[in-house]
Design goal:
This protein is mostly helical. The protein contains two helices and two strands; from the N terminus they run βαβα.
Length: 61
């Protein structure tokens, strides 16, 4: 699975790893997740904000 950064259009697998670390599974992550970043591969503030918005889409847990 790839997560694309809206800013640079790069596919950032590191972002998916970060989501999984925070308790998501690849089956649960709605895709493609669009995250606006100031830089890649991971901008934690932007990622945390997006996870906060996506919490309602989380299945199970």
């Amino acid at each position: 699975m790839k997560v694309k950064c809206d800013k640079c259009k790069a596919a950032c697998s590191a972002l998916v790893d970060e989501l999984i670390t925070l308790g998501w599974s690849q089956a649960v992550i709605p895709g493609p997740i669009k995250i606006t970043l100031t830089r890649c591969p991971v901008h934690r503030a932007g990622l945390t904000e997006e996870i906060g918005k996506a919490q309602g889409m989380r299945v199970g847990g």
